[in-house]
Write a structure and sequence with these properties.
single chain; globular; binds NADP nicotinamide-adenine-dinucleotide phosphate; Rossmann fold; seven-stranded parallel β-sheet; 6 helices; 239 residues; alpha/beta
């Protein structure tokens, strides 16, 4: 990952921070985004200590177009290129349909879908003009592929990320932008702290598994690209 620049939204979260640490050890430069500047500053310092030549922390609310545009402008002003974008900002509010509020739906669509949309829309013009193109990772998770009780609004936001990503890939057929969808089963991250559902966290995947998946996809030589990676705990295979 030497000489490569990776921008991560939701960088302070379980998946985003695990990927940042992993790619820092492999020598990537990093742009770390999330809403909480202090967490991002601490992570940036840790990543630089672990081998990243430069890690910048940019407080960003991915639901706000102006802030997403400012994030990519800052990345472009700091680095010569943006090679990889990982859209890991997201949240889950898991309740049966009878208990989901309009606000629950709006928040999940705003962060999970619109945030991913805005980030991709900002990344594509930059990546498509780079000689080496670019690689965008979106994370529908397994609930972008299968339904689950209590997940009507969450699944709606994640199935939408799948449609968004696959259609964008067709729009950009000759633009040298690669896409990988990560269909991950439950990972033991802070995602579950406020999701409203009790789960057996000790039986879940670790966030490092997501980092392994990203590292694997980035190691596939161009023009190859793993478009979809599915990883479940072995107790949930093919579910
Ligand atoms: N954990 C799982 O089991 C699992 C499984 C499959 C898929 N996923 C998906 O993977 C992604 C990452 O999940 P995770 O487990 O890493 O969750 P997490 O630990 O809760 O992290 C979520 C991250 O999103 C950021 N965020 C939330 N709202 C934001 C906003 N409006 N603007 C910018 N950043 C925002 C949070 O930082 P701030 O609060 O500081 O902004 C945090 O860094 C999500 O899309 C999730 O749906 C998770």
């Amino acid at each position: 990952m030497q000489d490569r620049v990776v921008l991560i939204t939701g960088a302070s979260g379980g998946i985003g921070s695990a990927v940042a640490r992993r790619l820092a050890r492999e020598g990537a430069s990093l742009v770390l985004a999330g809403r909480t500047q202090q967490k991002l500053d601490e992570l940036a310092a840790e990543c630089e200590g672990a081998g990243s030549p430069k890690a910048v922390a940019v407080a960003t609310d991915v639901t706000l177009k102006a802030q997403v545009e400012a994030l990519f402008a800052r990345a472009s002003a700091t680095f010569a290129q943006i090679d990889v974008v990982l859209n890991a900002a997201g949240l889950g509010i898991l309740k049966a349909i009878q208990h989901l509020s309009e606000e629950d739906l709006d928040r999940q669509l705003a962060v999970n879908l619109k945030g991913t949309f805005l980030s991709c829309q900002a990344a594509v013009p930059i990546m498509s003009q780079q000689p080496a193109g670019g690689h965008i990772f979106n994370i529908p998770g397994i609930l972008g592929q299968y339904p689950m009780a209590t997940a009507a609004a969450y699944c709606a936001s994640k199935y939408a990320v799948v449609g968004l990503t696959k259609s964008m890939a067709l729009d950009l057929k000759r633009a040298n932008v690669r896409f990988t969808l990560l269909y991950l089963g439950g990972l033991n991250t802070p995602f579950w702290d406020n999701a409203g559902m009790r789960v057996q966290r000790d039986k879940m995947l670790s966030a490092e598994t997501a980092a392994d998946a990203v590292a694997f996809a980035l190691a596939v030589p161009a023009p190859g690209v793993p478009n979809e990676i599915v990883i479940q705990p072995d107790s949930h295979q093919f579910l």
